[in-house]
User: Which sequence fits this backbone?
């Protein structure tokens, strides 16, 4: 029988003391995405977050989560493991190819093995059911605070201006600003960034950055480059990050790149 529920409850109308320490939280933009198929738990988590002034959006399946990640600016993910259309561990691995924010597992799976797996694949915290909504929101605030502190540090840094591809966290920065990229766009940039200035043919990029290059066309690369340029222009309109070499392919501007961790 599936264990669901929480310890205690948030009572509508009752006044609770709020955590007024907003340092670093103001830097983190976006909503908390709650992926949980039990309606009562979704409602409890959503209400608990609202009482703390934290915006959230809730979904019940992996498919809905993918759409939400595409349509919404997300700062943190609360993720159940047992979902109707997929496994939360697998979805976390997928997220880590393009999402650098914190992931908090909220699940009935309480074994040591499950906890270790959740943390090793990129989870920032692991909470088991039944749970306390107030403790959960405190853990979420802590993760957001740490993420905000990292963004503040990146914003304050003047050591590097240009493109940075962080392989460890699977994220991209331009002039210190985070750039939201798809998994394919990240692999494309990571390939070119390994040797800035080198001209990569479309065939080479397909082979290096796509799991099944034979199923893609040359124009697939052109489309992804166009999308990346549009994203870069929003941050640095006058900066040429990706150069076109007619009849040959593409390269990264070697004056703008730094090898990421």
Assistant:
């Amino acid at each position: 029988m599936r264990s669901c529920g929480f310890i205690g409850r948030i009572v509508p109308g009752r006044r609770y003391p709020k955590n007024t320490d907003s340092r670093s939280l103001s830097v983190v933009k976006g909503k908390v995405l709650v992926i949980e198929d039990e309606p009562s738990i979704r409602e409890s988590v959503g209400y608990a977050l609202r009482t703390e002034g934290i915006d959230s959006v809730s979904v019940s399946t992996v498919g809905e989560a993918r759409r939400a990640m595409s349509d919404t600016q997300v700062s943190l993910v609360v993720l159940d493991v047992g979902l109707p259309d997929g496994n939360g561990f697998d979805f976390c691995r997928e997220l880590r190819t393009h999402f650098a924010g914190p992931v908090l597992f909220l699940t009935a799976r309480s074994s040591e093995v499950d906890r270790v797996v959740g943390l090793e694949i990129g989870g920032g915290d692991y909470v088991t059911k039944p749970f306390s909504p107030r403790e959960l929101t405190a853990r979420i605030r802590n993760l957001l605070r740490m993420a905000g502190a990292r963004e503040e540090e990146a914003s304050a840094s003047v050591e590097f201006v240009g493109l940075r591809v962080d392989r460890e966290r699977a994220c991209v920065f331009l002039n210190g600003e985070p750039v939201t990229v798809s998994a394919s766009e990240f692999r494309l940039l990571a390939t070119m960034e390994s040797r800035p200035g080198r001209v990569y043919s479309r065939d080479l990029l397909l082979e290096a950055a796509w799991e099944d290059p034979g199923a893609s066309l040359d124009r697939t690369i052109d489309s992804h480059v166009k999308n990346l340029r549009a994203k870069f222009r929003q941050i640095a309109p006058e900066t040429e990050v990706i150069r076109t070499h007619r009849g040959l392919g593409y390269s990264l501007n070697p004056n703008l790149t730094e090898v990421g961790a």
